[in-house]
Amino acid sequence: MAGAFDKAEQWRRRAAELLSVAATMREPAARASLREIAASLERHADKLEEVSLKICRVQRRAARWRQAVPGASCVGTTIPA
Prior knowledge:
Elements: H1 2-24, H2 28-68
Helix pairs in contact: 1-2
């Protein structure tokens, strides 16, 4: 999931760039719009990292479960914590 974390960091850099541009804007509506877009990018990056971490945890649990039960499949089965 390193790719997802890299993508989240790219979105954060873009958000920072938008905030820098917004700081130079004279038009209040344009400045507010850029700030809203930057905040959306930050939230998107947060959610991407959150989901990526959840996927990693599930994959680790599934791997441990498969090792504990040789020949088992995760399909239609509850994976123990």
